[in-house]
Write a structure and sequence with these properties.
Number of helices: 7
Order of helices and strands: HEHHEHHHH
Largest sheet: 2 strands, antiparallel
Strand content: under 5%
Shape: rod-shaped
Strand order of the largest sheet: 1-2
Length: 191
């Protein structure tokens, strides 16, 4: 999947180059604005680096596809913008401007949507990690044999629940269950 996405982008970039070469003519060296080549070409190369890093650090999925398409459009726009420094298009061809300008806003919109979903993804992962860390720190509050919370855990949870019920102005109930001969159950689990 990673290689397919890069292959599609390489084919699109090559197709853009072929179109420019088919209808345009190469500029002479003295006509080339090298500052634009460095700026636009450098931006295109950086966009490829971002794309490569993102594809290597994220699993496949909707968010990765949105980010890939967004970065692909931005790269294509900068690539086409760089090509017009080397190839002169006919004066009456407005499609060249469209080819270099239109993918940019589309790419930025796709990137924004992808980053929005990535943000929500990261918030969910952070919440899950915080919960796991809290449980890890509170491991002393749990019985090793039964993995049930001990008396200190019950006190802490009861205090938190009472505070939350008070803030939300909602009633709170506590159910206690007393198991006869629970110690014998523990002893059976140990053996």
């Amino acid at each position: 999947s990673f290689h397919i996405k890069l292959l599609i982008l390489a084919i699109a970039a090559n197709l853009g180059l072929q179109i420019y070469l088919a209808v345009g003519e190469p500029k002479f060296w003295h006509e080339i604005d090298w500052l634009d080549v460095v700026a636009e070409g450098g931006a295109a190369v950086l966009c490829l680096v971002w794309l490569w890093l993102m594809l290597h650090s994220r699993p496949d999925g909707r968010v990765t596809n949105l980010l890939t398409m967004g970065l692909g459009c931005v790269f294509f726009s900068w690539w086409m913008d760089c090509l017009d420094e080397f190839i002169r298009l006919p004066e009456n061809s407005h499609w060249g401007t469209w080819l270099e300008s239109a993918p940019m806003p589309v790419g930025l919109i796709l990137l924004t949507i992808g980053l929005y979903h990535w943000h929500h993804e990261q918030k969910a992962i952070s919440a899950q990690m915080a919960k796991r860390e809290r449980l890890f720190r509170e491991h002393k509050l749990f019985d090793k044999l039964t993995p049930l919370g001990g008396a200190d855990y019950l006190r802490r949870q009861l205090s938190l629940s009472l505070e939350q019920a008070k803030q939300n102005q909602q009633p709170l109930s506590l159910i206690a269950v007393d198991l006869d001969n629970f110690n014998s159950i523990n002893q059976r689990n140990v053996q």
